[in-house]
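Can't attach files on this board, so I'm pasting raw text. These are the components:
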Amino acid sequence: MSAAEPIQTLPFRRPQDDQHRLAALHRYDVLKEPAGEDFRFLTELAARICGVPYAFITLVDAEQVWVKSYTGLAIDQLPRDQCYCSLAVLGENATEIPDLSADARTARMPLTAGEPHLRMYSSVALSTSDGYALGTLCVMDVKPGRLSAEQRGLLQGLARQAMALIELRAKEKALQASLHELEQLATTDELTGLHNRRSLLHRLKFEVARTRRFRTPLSAVMIDLDHFKRVNDEYGHAAGDLVLADIGRLLRENIRVIDLAGRYGGEELCILLPNTPPEGARKFAESLRAKIEAQVHHDGARSIQVTASFGIASFNHMDIDDADSLLRQADAALYRAKQNGRNRVEN
Ligand SMILES: Nc1nc2c(ncn2[C@@H]2O[C@H](COP(=O)(O)OP(=O)(O)OP(=O)(O)O)[C@@H](O)[C@H]2O)c(=O)[nH]1
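---
Top answer:
Structure tokens for the assembled complex are below.
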């Protein structure tokens, strides 16, 4: 081939059910996962068993081939039409090309025609239990040749191990996702999307310990909606729920990532403000009070507006007491806010 002649890539044939195959591949959700030692060990072993310099675990995606693990040649991904493994997922369980330069499909592919001038390719498909080939465990050599029956048998065994590892990773990921979902469910109040009482109290303990350790201030803001009983009585319980949900959203949108907003009880909410002195907490509470007052809740054609009273309590590391007394102080301040006319902040 002259230097000017363009490198020809694989005639891009796809398996007939490539869409389903790709759907199966994406279900495993492991394409961009770091490979890890266990995959590397398998390619290392495959290269040794077959007595060749190169071995790869590949996953054949829509337009590219992801190399999960390599031995001998550092490649992370290749365009699908430049990779021999695109042939290997066409349906055969095992694919062997004894001389890549003598095969019309592969002779002018970059890794055959250019460095490292590969000649032998042998692969076993990584197949799902429902028969989709996601990719391969493959070995390659710069000399033409074939694997022995024994080598092919061992390569099959290693491919099964690679597939088992992929399945294990996918299950681990799914388990992590379920655990995360469960944790969300266990710590979140469904109506407001805020932390539930248990989660709030758990975090409060942690924040109190942190305040002691790092000698930083900690403030708690207790919020109680004013005359909320009237909202329920006048508009109905569902409308009351809608108002609570709106206010939950407002709180979530107005706190910093290190703050925590929780539903302490029915229409009583609480915000923990780590590293925040009383003046800061007061400023924050004032601005939130104004936002709640200005918020219009729409229940069908009806508009509802509510106000809220705020009680603030703060610790600093000098007068640290315990989590319960912080909440008691905030509750007492909230009581004063109610006594002094509602829709106000007290500390
Ligand atoms: N819709 C709805 N209402 C709730 C929920 N939780 C508590 N409430 C209501 O909130 C109201 C609280 O009433 P009260 O404790 O008398 O206080 P208030 O009417 O808000 O009056 P003040 O707090 O004194 O301003 C009750 O009617 C509760 O039923 C809830 O999840 N959804």
